[in-house]
Design goal:
The protein is of the alpha/beta class and 302 residues long. The chain contains 13 helices and eight strands. It has a domain of 203 residues: 3-Layer(aba) Sandwich (Rossmann fold), CATH 3.40.50. The radius of gyration is 18 Å and the shape is globular.
C-alpha cells in the first residue's frame, strides 16, 4: 500500500469531499437500482458524471466538490458494476442510455451537461445523439465510441480490436482474482504517475470486484468489447463531425492510445474544443484535477 510521508499530503476519496455537503443514495433508474452521489444546489444547472468500464462513481471524487460550487452535481454507478444492480444479461450502449435517461427522469432533471470517462464518454456521445434536447454540453475524457478511418470490414481497427480484447481479458482476470496487487496492476494502464495510485483507488475497486455477483457481471459488461459488438454500438460519424451540442475533448498527449487518436480526428470540427492535459493517462480528471476542473467548469459555464 502507499506509504505516507511528511512531504506528501495524505489523500483519500474522503479528503476530497469531507467539507462538501453531499449524499450517497440509491434510486430506481428505469428499473435499475442505481447508486449515486449528489452535491450542490439542485436549482443550479445539472452536471452528470459517467465513469468508465467496470468502474464506479468514485472516478469523480476529485471533481465533485469544485463542480458543486457552480452546479447541481450527480455521479452514478452504471448498471452491472459499482453498487448498482447487476442483471443477468449482456450490457450494451442502449442499456446504459436507458439507465441514464431513467436516472435523469427519476431525479426530475430535464437537461444536463454530461461528463464521461472512456465507456462513460461513449455513452455520453450516444445519449447526446439520441436525446440532444436533454443535453446542454458534453465533456469527453478518454473518448471512445468513434468510427475511425482505415477500418476493416468488422468496423474495428486492428489496434482497437487488440486494445478491446486486452481490456476484456484484464478485467475478467482481475475480477476472478481480485488481490490488491492485481487491482493495482490494472490501474497501471489508467493512471500515469505512481503518486496518483492512492490506496482508495485500489481499495474501492477491489471491494467492488470482490462482490460475489461481480465475476458473472463482468462477463456481461465486457460483452460490449467483442469486435461485432463494438461495430454495432459505435456512434455514427456524423455526430463526431458535428456534435449536436458543444463538446470539450480532453486530450492526453502522454498517452497515445485510441482516445488520443480520436482527439486528433475531431480537432477543427464544428462545436468541438480540444484541450490537452499532459502528464496524465486515462484519468486526467483524477490525475490533474485542478487543471481539469478549471477547464471543464469554464467550458460548461461559458
Amino acid at each position: 500500500m502507499t506509504a505516507n510521508t511528511a512531504d506528501v499530503p495524505y489523500r483519500s476519496f474522503w479528503t476530497y469531499v469531507y467539507d462538501v455537503p453531499h449524499k450517497v443514495d440509491w434510486i430506481d433508474a428505469g428499473g435499475v437500482r442505481t447508486r449515486y452521489i449528489e452535491a450542490g444546489d439542485p436549482s443550479k444547472p445539472t452536471v452528470l458524471m459517467l465513469h468508465g468500464i467496470a468502474g464506479s462513481l468514485e472516478n469523480f471524487m476529485a471533481n465533485i466538490g469544485p463542480f458543486s460550487k457552480d452546479f447541481h452535481v450527480l455521479a452514478m454507478d452504471f448498471v452491472g458494476t459499482g453498487f448498482s444492480d447487476k442483471p443477468d444479461k449482456d450490457l450494451f450502449i442502449a442499456d446504459y442510455i436507458a439507465q441514464v435517461d431513467g436516472f435523469l427522469k427519476a431525479k426530475n432533471v430535464e437537461k444536463a451537461s454530461l461528463i464521461g470517462v472512456s465507456l462513460g464518454s461513449f455513452v455520453t456521445m450516444a445519449f447526446t445523439a439520441k436525446y440532444p434536447e436533454k443535453v446542454n454540453k458534453i465533456v469527453m475524457i478518454a473518448a471512445a465510441g468513434k468510427l475511425v478511418p482505415a477500418m476493416l470490414a468488422a468496423a474495428v481497427k486492428p489496434d482497437t480490436a487488440a486494445i478491446a480484447e486486452h481490456i476484456r481479458k484484464r478485467r475478467i482476470s482481475t475480477v476472478q482474482n481480485p488481490t490488491w496487487e492485481a487491482v493495482r496492476e490494472m490501474f497501471d494502464e489508467l493512471i500515469l504517475e505512481e503518486k496518483n495510485k492512492i490506496d482508495d483507488v485500489i481499495g474501492v475497486r477491489q471491494s467492488i470486484y470482490k462482490l460475489p455477483e461481480m465475476p458473472s457481471s463482468m462477463e456481461r459488461i465486457v460483452a460490449l468489447l467483442s469486435p461485432q459488438a463494438i461495430a454495432e454500438n459505435l456512434v455514427a460519424q456524423e455526430h463526431w463531425d458535428h456534435p449536436k451540442v458543444p463538446a470539450l475533448f480532453i486530450e492526453t498527449p502522454d498517452s497515445h492510445d485510441f482516445s488520443y487518436d480520436i482527439c486528433q480526428e475531431v480537432k477543427g470540427n464544428p462545436n468541438v474544443t480540444v484541450h490537452p492535459i499532459p502528464k496524465t493517462k486515462h484519468w486526467p480528471q483524477f490525475e490533474a484535477p485542478e487543471t481539469f476542473n478549471q477547464v471543464a467548469i469554464d467550458f460548461i459555464k461559458a
